[in-house]
Amino acid sequence: MDRAGRAPPVHAARGLYVLTGQAPEVLLHVGSPARGARWQELLPTLVSGLIVRQWPDVGDPAAIRYVAAWAPPAGLLASLPHLEVVFSVGAGVDHLDLSDVPAHVPVVRMIEPGLVRGMEEYAVFAVLALHRGMLGHIAQQRQGAWGDADPVTATPARRIGIFGLGAIGGAVAARLASFDFAVAGWSRSPRSIDGVETFAGDATLAAFLARTDILVNVLPLTDATRGIIGAATLARLPRGAGLVNIGRGGHVDEAALLLALDSGHVGGAILDVTSREPLPAGHPFWQHPRVLLTPHIAGTTDVSGGAAAIAEQILRHRRGDALTGVVDRQAGY
Ligand code: GLV
Predict the structure, then answer these.
(1) Tens digit of pLDDT for each residue in 44-55?
(2) Are residues 186 and 83 in the same domain?
(3) Residues 96 and 156 reside in one and the same domain
């Protein structure tokens, strides 16, 4: 019998079972084969007895305790009788069909230092670019024009608003505050971050937007946040405001953003995520002089950091300690 009182499964790793007397635990990785190969090397050095398999090499489905995936194929999770935890390989879980995960199995978001640092770095780059008018300077360069030296707004007078104050939004807010920007953040439930003015709940949204010169979206994509950056939200920002989207493309009503850019109400947008990735050829954002597009690169899970984060959670799980970053199925993040 194993810890959970189950009969030992018959599987390929029987040799290890014979040696240790414990049924080996298998983690199935569904995603990039390169990362899977590294995790096959790294994870067993961090979690004794753990065996990593790379989809579609499932082996004995009954031996799989953990799945680490971005978007597992429909039906896979429900077909694993001893599945105990699902790890998202990204910070978001909107790409995972939560209704496909058995109700008793927790889903854990990826929060690891490399990913968070990437998000902070990108937010700093994008906010500084908008703050210093770089989209205008790039457009002038393309036209062979030297351009004008715009007056520089002092950082304490530039109001940055972070949409979403979770693990990533909080880190982004603190990092931007270290530049002396006037940073505020909005979240559904109250948060407190040193040097950051915080707003919570729908009733405060209008006030948050009205004081935001550059809006940085880091919200999770859920039914409650889909399309949240639409005409009404954009209209509440001060004229000429900037938008940085490092959340999800589904947060933005792109037609409304285009109108706001064309009318000058929104001065510039730096978009790392879009409704379709890549955007279709001919989409107006490709050539828009006040839009900078990047291909969903802001924060990616570092292979070693991701392995360490998953290992730590498996060890917690083995000890019977609470997992961290567990998705609330109701809230969807
Ligand atoms: C990337 O977008 C992630 O969710 O980690």
Answers:
(1) 999 999 999 999
(2) no
(3) no
88 with 161, same domain: the answer is no
Q: Confirm whether 131 is a catalytic residue.
A: no
pLDDT tens column, 110-135? 999 999 999 999 999 999 999 999 99
Q: Do both 259 and 167 map to the same domain?
A: yes
Please state the domain count of the chain: 2
Ligand 1: lining residues by beta carbon, under 6 Å: 90-92, 115, 299
271: domain CATH number?
3.40.50.720
**Cis geometry, peptide bond prior to residue 73 (ω within 30 degrees of 0):** no
C-alpha 89 – ligand 1 centre gap (Å): 8
Q: Separation of 18 CA from ligand 1 center, angstroms?
A: 40
My answer on whether 96 and 160 are in the same domain is no
Query: Euclidean distance between the first and final Cα of the chain, in Å?
Result: 35
Is the pTM for the entire model greater than 0.85? yes
Out of 35, 53, 248, 317, pick the active-site residue: 248
pLDDT average, residue stretch 167-185: 98
Please give the DSSP secondary-structure letter assigned to residue 219: P
Given a contact cutoff of 8 angstroms between Cβ atoms, the answer to whether 260 and 269 are in contact is no
pLDDT at residue number 22? 64
10 Å CB burial of residue 304 (0-12, 13-18, 19+) is: middle
Given the structure tokens 């954002």, which residue do they identify? 285
